[in-house]
Structures are given as structure tokens and as C-alpha cells.
Design brief:
The complex is a heterodimer of chains A (502) and B (314). Chain A has 502 residues and is α+β, with helices and mostly antiparallel strands. Chain A has a domain of 63 residues: Dna Ligase, domain 1 (2-Layer Sandwich), CATH 3.30.1490. Chain A is built from 15 helices and 23 strands. Chain A has a five-stranded mixed sheet with strand order 3-23-22-19-18. In chain A, helix 1 packs across helix 2 and helix 5 packs across helix 13. Chain B is mainly α and 314 residues long. Chain B folds into two domains: 151 residues, no CATH class; 160 residues, no CATH class. Chain B contains 15 helices and no strands. The chains are: A alpha+beta (502), B mainly alpha (314). The interface between A and B is medium-sized, with 23 and 29 residues.
Chain lengths: 502, 314
């Protein structure tokens, strides 16, 4: 029997009820009483009942053995990511936890509605700011917030994108706070990655724990590559277009994912050197001569795509690509210039975009964000800095930020001066707790913080595979889920119907 | 198929074949050395000469002992054709196009590479022996088996095969050129008494291309130098003979796109015709070394033409 370390009382745990919740639950349900007797003090949420049953009835070494099997399989298949700047063995495995993160059918239905709404509005926003700029004219977003944004591609102004679909592939980072509610932390609208781990985790779990999938109905995700290919084809006006996946090459950290997706979709995996532009059409060099390319799913950042149009020193791009794109002779997914909509300074406006373009109330919560460029917000931030996370609007990777609760009074005072000097450069948010999920770590099964990245596809309609990538911060207490900083992943199960356990 | 993919597949299989050939050459060299441990170490340089690594080996400034040569050709990080670098290059090429391989093919190569890391930690280079060479050969055999059993017969498969046979033909010609000539006069003399050493030398040549059993089955007679040349150049059924390699290469070229294949197809057909309608007596009359030197030159031209036709990023 496995013992599970309980999470701290104030945390929201995906699997375990808190002490108070479990007391009220056990008085009502005979099923949870049965489990509570098997599980000792721990009480499971109803949708984890099937899993908990299995866990309680399996011998202690089951997880250890299967984790070893999983590691071996991952290494053998070469599901690795590349770590930059490390001596020797630059390929590493992303740890894949053997305990799944389970989402109820009800929660998923809610997320799916909210994501569809959010991504639809973002697409309308992008089409708007590169054309009519109605939202700026309406005064909802200050003009300088857009025009002064480094991610705003002036070259894209007036360029017609087929079906006005700017983001075909979105990865939305969602967390659950200790209030039990979901919050969108970030919209990844450029080249979101991680979907291959969603697919490989599932493949691995089905291989290692077939009995678990017989116990309850977990919705499949394996059709994601088919949905992606359909989405990419729909982005073009041509019948049965030639689609390619463009990678920066095998030294890119996500190279495994690029090869994996190209293979799953049965399309060519191309590098810049495989392509050339002639008379504003894009061709790939094949063993039978040049072949036209109609749609490019690119995993290369905007600025590296074309040395003639963007960074001149790009050696991974294709000279002339932008001109071919501008003339409508190739579709690039995601479109160029989408980064302006996932910038931290624009994020607070997404609920406004939803109201403005769709005339609907936002379904998903944004994390409340204080924009220091607004005097009222600034004074609030300065007064409450010790409770807030303060971030630079264009910053990334944890630089130029202050985590109030973890900072000394001195650090807070110093940062306050910096913010005062240039308020427009900063935003602030309350610190979120991030829900936890029991995870099999060195010390046994213990709670670790997680997030969720569902992948949303926009073709003629919005589609997604039920679930996403669950990332887990493997260090105790850590909130950092990034794979480059000790994060792992979990298989993400969306149940077919509410709380069903067989 | 992308030209770059063709190139990676072709070089993947060339490097794998090269690692196997290197293992074969070293294995045979080592077993010959064991037969005659007191002899001068001139024979130690043979694998260096066969693989044309004289300059690279000289740069190490190591004495030309068997142990040094084996350690150098098996493990040296700076020698591009060491077994270590061949396996690394095989895997890197495969990784660049893993989407064009079946998952079994990729996993096989990746397994080899993972196991190689362990071996490179466990084995003392100066003590590298038969067990390691057998392992290298076996991994190469396994990959071909997996390829044969899982790959669809389309372009990736054909370019993989093409790499194998071009590398192999090149290797067989080199072994014959060096090992055969070693200690034997260039002008073949049938009346030569066959000394005991001669027997071992020739059987080693045959073993290095897995042809000892084939020789016995074909001739059912003592090993003589003329027949060794004949079987290694002209035998249509021996998988490592020049003739066999060019029969295969010609067949592979027939399966590849025709758009720009005129030159490689013509060169392959010419080489194939020489092997198909040639005879060992003609070769010996012309001079074996001369014949093989011509052949190796033709190989270079052919290799370049393949590269230009299918793989160059024009």
C-alpha cells in the first residue's frame, strides 16, 4: 500500500480533499468512507476514486518499477530536450511522473468553452490591430501600448492573413488557485511547445498501466496530430495544400517535438536551408527537384524567419519568405506578429477584448493585474508591494521582477523606487498559490505544484484534444514548472463523464 | 523527399557501415598479431594504411604498436573515422531525420549509441578486443535487419541501402588493395609456394569480409591468392564483393527519382558492366593494384555524382 503525504492545509490539491472538506464528505458518502478506511487519514476527491482504489490495492514497489520502465522507454525512444551550455551529454529527459493529473468532465467542459472564447477574441484582436484598429479607436487600449510594443510587427500592417486566423496553435497556461478556481496565467501565441509530451505521456501511461485505463473512461488525445494537420490545411485557400513543419534544426531544445509532429502528420520536416524562394513562391529542395510549399507550420521565431525582412544575421531563415507571405503565396502558422497579443502589458486587456469583439462576458478568469502606468493602480501597488508579484511588462524568465512575499523590506523599498521611476514598465499581480497534485518523488508520494497547458487549434472551427500538458514543479514547495528548471510532466486525464469510477 | 533528408540517410548508413568495417579490419589485424606476437610491428600499421589514416595517426606521435593503432582507430576523438566518431555520426544523422526512419530503426540506432557510451566508460582503449568488435558488427547487422524488416521500400529505404553498398564496396577494395599486396608481389605469380604465413594472410583477408565460408563452399580447395581476388571482386553472390555491391547500387538507382539521375546511373552501369563481364585473369594481367586504384577513383566519381544528383542543396 502506498502512503501519500498530505498537502499543507491551505493548498488546493487536485486529488486529496482538505481536512475540513473530507470530514463533511465522509459523512455523506459510503464510498468515500470505504476509501478513507483504506487510505488512512487521506480522503480522495470523487473523480480520483478509481485511481485511489487502484493505488491502495497495488504493492508499494509498483510505482518504483514502472517509473524505471518509463525512464528506460523515454531514453530508448530518445524523448529528450536539449540543454544549452552544458558540458557533455547535452540531451536530457524531462521527468515524467507516473501519477496522472485528472480533470473532471465538468471542469473540462468549462475550460473548453472558456478557451474557445478567449482564443477567438485574441484572433479578432490581432486582425483588428493590423488593420482597422477599432479597439484603439474605441479607446479600450491606449494606442502607445500597441504601437510602442516591440512585438508589434509594423511590416504586418495591412497584410491579409487567410480567414483572419493569426493564431492557429495556442498554448494557454492555466493554474488553479487555492480558491479552487482556474486562472489564465499566460497565452502562448508564438510557437507554443510541449504537446509531444502530452502525447508521449499518454502513450507511456497506457503501456505501463493498462489496467488503469480499463477502470475508467479517459478521453483520448492521440488524434491531436490529425486535428493539427486538419487545422493547418484549413489555413490555406488551396485544396489539399502541401504543408511542412519548419524547425531551427536538431540543436533546438524542442527538436524532438518537431520531428515527432512532422512524422505523426506525415509532412516534411524542413530547415531553412531546405527552402528557397523564386518569383515570390516558396519551394523545398527534394530528390526529384523543387516542390511548392503552401503552408508552413513554423517553429522558428518571427525575427529569424527571413534575413531580408527581419534579422539579417539569421542563418536559419529563408531569404524572401516574407515577400512570398505578404503576397499570399504561402501561409505561415502562426502568423507573423502574434507576439504582441501575449505580451504581459496586453494580457490585462484580454477580458476587454472578449467583451469588445464577442459581446460576451469572459468565461475564464484573468489573474487580477495592476498596471502601474495607471495612477490608481500604481498607488495600490506601492502600498501593497510586499503581497504582490511585480513584473517588467516585456520581461521573461524571472528577470526584472519582485516576488513581494519572498523579499526583504529593503528589497521592496528599492524596487518601489525603480517602479516609480518608470511606472509604465511594470505590472503587478497577487501571488497565486498553484494547486498541487500527489507526485511520485524520491521521498515517496508527496504534493507538488502543477499547472496546465491545453493546446487550442483554430481552423474553420476551434478544436482541442481534451487535456493538455500538465507541468509539475518537482522540488518541494517550488512554483517553477519550467522543464529547464527542474520541472517535470504528468499525463493529464480528462474523464468522459463526471466522477465516473468503475 | 527532401535532398537534405536523403543526404542524412545516406551518410547515416555509410557511417554505420564504416564502423562495422573498421571493427572487421581491427579484429582480423589483432588475431593475426596474436598468431605471431614476436614479429615486427609493421603489420600494425596495416589498418591505418587501409583506412588512409596515416596523417591522423602520425599527428598523435604514438609508436605504431598494435595496441596504439587499435585504440586510435576504435576510440580516438579527433579521428573522424574512428569507431567512436562513426557511431556518433550515425546517430547524429539519424537524429536529424528520425521522422523518416521507422521507430524500430531509430530506436536501434539510439540503443547502440546509448550502449556505446557505457562501453566507452567500461573499456580500456588499450585493451579493446574481439568482444567489442563483435558487438560493433552485431549492432550493424541488427540495424540492417530492422531496416529490412520494417522499412517501406521507398526513398528513405533506398538511400539507406545506397550508402551501405557504396561504403562497403569502397572498403572491400581497400582491404584487397592493402592486405593482398602486403608481403605478396604485385605481379601475381601462380608458382609461388604457399607458406604458412601466406595461408593466414589470405584467410584473414577473407574473414575480414565474411568470405571464408563462401570461399570453401565455392572452391572446395586450398586458399590461393588468385581465387581470393576473384571471389572478392567478381562473386555475384557474396554480399561484400565489389560485383554484389554494384549490382545492388544499380538496382537502388533504378528506384530513385529519374529527374537528375543520368550521371550516377551511367557511372554505376559502367562500373557494373566491368564487374559483370570482367575476369580475374584480365585483372591480374593488368595488375591488381592498378585495377583497384582505378576502381577507387571511379568510386569517388560515382559518389560525387550521387551527391550532386540527389543531395546537394542547390
Amino acid at each position: 500500500m502506498h502512503s501519500i503525504k498530505a498537502p499543507p492545509a491551505h493548498h488546493f490539491d487536485e486529488m486529496l480533499l482538505s481536512q475540513t472538506q473530507s470530514q463533511s464528505a465522509s459523512s455523506g458518502s459510503s464510498q468515500s468512507q470505504r476509501q478513507s478506511s483504506a487510505a488512512g487519514a487521506e480522503r480522495f476527491r470523487p473523480h480520483y476514486a478509481g485511481y485511489a482504489d487502484w493505488l491502495q490495492s497495488s504493492p508499494e514497489q509498483t510505482l518504483t518499477q514502472r517509473r524505471a520502465q518509463a525512464d528506460l522507454l523515454f531514453r530508448r525512444i530518445g524523448i529528450t530536450f536539449t540543454v544549452y551550455g552544458e558540458e557533455g551529454g547535452t540531451e536530457r529527459l524531462i521527468p515524467s511522473d507516473v501519477i496522472p493529473r485528472i480533470i473532471t468532465a465538468e471542469d473540462w467542459a468549462y475550460l473548453e468553452r472558456g478557451l474557445t472564447q478567449r482564443v477567438t477574441a485574441i484572433n479578432k484582436f490581432l486582425a483588428d490591430i493590423y488593420h482597422d484598429q477599432a479597439i484603439l479607436k474605441a479607446g479600450l487600449i491606449p494606442r502607445e501600448q500597441i504601437m510602442g510594443n516591440a512585438q508589434f510587427q509594423t511590416k504586418m500592417v495591412g497584410v491579409k492573413v487567410p480567414h483572419d486566423t493569426y493564431v492557429s496553435i495556442t498554448g494557454v497556461d492555466i493554474v488553479r488557485n487555492n480558491d479552487g478556481k482556474f486562472y489564465v496565467l499566460e497565452d502562448n501565441l508564438r510557437v507554443p511547445s510541449g504537446v509531444s509530451y502530452m502525447l508521449m505521456n499518454r502513450k507511456m501511461m497506457m503501456r505501463l498501466f493498462p489496467e488503469l485505463f480499463l477502470r475508467q473512461s479517459v478521453r483520448p488525445v492521440e488524434h491531436y496530430p490529425a486535428l493539427l494537420l486538419q487545422t493547418l490545411k484549413e489555413s490555406s485557400n488551396i485544396d489539399n495544400p502541401t504543408v511542412v513543419l519548419m524547425t531551427p534544426g536538431r540543436f533546438n531544445s524542442a527538436y524532438f517535438e518537431h520531428t515527432f509532429l512532422a512524422q505523426q502528420m506525415g509532412i516534411e520536416l524542413v530547415e531553412g536551408q531546405d527552402l528557397f524562394v523564386k518569383d515570390d513562391f516558396v519551394y523545398m529542395r527534394t530528390t526529384s527537384g523543387p516542390q511548392r510549399v503552401d503552408v508552413m507550420y513554423r517553429r522558428v521565431d518571427d525575427v529569424f524567419l527571413d534575413p531580408n525582412a527581419f534579422r539579417e544575421d539569421s542563418v536559419i531563415g529563408v531569404p524572401g519568405l516574407f515577400e512570398a507571405y505578404r503576397k499570399g503565396n504561402i501561409v505561415i502558422c502562426n502568423a507573423i506578429g502574434t507576439g504582441v497579443a501575449d505580451d504581459k502589458s496586453i494580457y490585462p486587456y484580454v477580458p476587454d477584448m472578449i467583451k469588445f469583439y464577442l459581446d460576451e462576458e469572459p468565461i475564464l478568469n484573468n489573474v487580477p493585474t495592476y498596471q502601474c502606468r495607471k495612477p490608481t493602480d500604481l498607488s495600490y501597488v506601492l502600498a501593497n508591494m510586499k503581497d504582490l508579484v511585480v513584473k517588467e511588462v516585456h520581461g521573461a524568465g524571472g528577470y526584472g521582477m519582485l516576488v513581494g512575499p519572498a523579499a526583504t523590506a529593503n528589497e521592496v523599498a528599492e524596487f518601489a523606487e525603480i517602479v516609480k521611476a518608470n511606472p509604465a514598465n511594470y505590472i503587478a499581480q497577487p501571488t497565486l498559490a498553484l494547486s498541487s497534485c500527489p507526485t511520485f518523488v524520491e521521498s515517496g508520494i508527496a504534493p507538488r505544484h502543477i499547472d496546465l497547458r491545453p493546446f487550442v487549434l483554430t481552423g474553420r472551427e476551434v478544436r482541442m484534444a481534451p487535456g493538455g500538458l500538465t507541468r509539475v514543479a518537482l522540488r518541494e514547495g517550488s512554483l517553477v514548472v519550467n522543464s529547464s528548471q527542474g520541472g517535470g510532466t504528468k499525463d493529464t486525464w480528462v474523464l468522459a463523464d463526471a466522477g465516473e469510477a468503475v | 523527399m527532401l535532398s537534405r533528408v536523403a543526404s542524412h540517410l545516406y551518410w547515416m548508413s555509410r557511417y554505420l557501415e564504416r564502423s562495422e568495417n573498421m571493427a572487421r579490419i581491427l579484429d582480423v589485424t589483432q588475431s593475426l598479431a596474436m598468431l605471431d606476437p614476436g614479429a615486427d610491428s609493421g603489420g600494425a600499421m596495416t589498418p591505418i594504411v587501409i583506412t588512409e589514416a596515416q596523417a591522423e595517426f602520425a599527428a598523435t606521435k604514438l609508436p605504431a604498436t598494435y595496441a596504439n593503432v587499435v585504440a586510435f582507430l576504435a576510440w580516438d576523438l579527433d579521428h573522424p573515422s574512428s569507431i567512436r566518431n562513426c557511431i556518433e555520426a550515425t546517430r547524429e544523422n539519424a537524429r536529424a531525420v528520425r521522422g523518416s526512419l521507422t521507430s524500430e530503426m531509430w530506436e536501434n540506432i539510439n540503443d547502440t549509441w546509448i550502449a556505446f557510451q557505457e562501453k566507452s566508460r567500461a573499456i580500456d582503449p588499450m585493451m579493446t578486443g574481439n568482444e567489442f568488435f563483435e558487438w560493433v558488427k552485431e549492432r550493424s547487422h541488427l540495424f540492417r535487419g530492422v531496416t529490412f524488416a520494417t522499412a517501406r521500400r521507398d526513398q528513405p529505404y533506398h538511400f539507406t541501402r545506397l550508402g551501405t553498398f557504396i561504403e562497403r564496396a569502397d572498403n572491400t577494395a581497400r582491404i584487397l588493395n592493402v592486405k593482398y599486396a602486403e608481403g605478396a608481389p604485385d605481379e601475381f605469380d601462380e608458382s609461388d609456394e604457399q607458406a604458412e604465413g601466406e595461408y593466414y594472410r589470405l584467410s584473414a583477408v577473407l574473414r575480414s569480409v565474411s568470405a571464408l565460408e563462401a570461399y570453401r563452399d565455392t572452391y572446395r580447395d586450398v586458399i590461393d591468392a588468385r581465387r581470393v581476388a576473384e571471389i572478392m571482386i567478381f562473386d555475384p553472390k557474396l554480399p561484400r564483393s565489389l560485383r554484389f555491391c554494384f549490382d545492388e547500387a544499380t538496382l537502388v538507382l533504378d528506384e530513385l527519382p529519374r529527374e537528375s539521375s543520368r550521371l550516377p546511373r551511367r557511372l554505376a552501369a559502367e562500373m557494373n558492366a566491368k564487374l559483370r563481364y570482367g575476369s580475374v585473369d584480365e585483372v591480374l594481367e593488368y595488375g591488381l593494384k592498378r585495377y583497384l586504384a582505378d576502381f577507387l577513383l571511379d568510386m569517388v566519381k560515382f559518389g560525387n555524382s550521387v551527391n550532386t544528383a540527389y543531395m546537394e542543396l542547390r
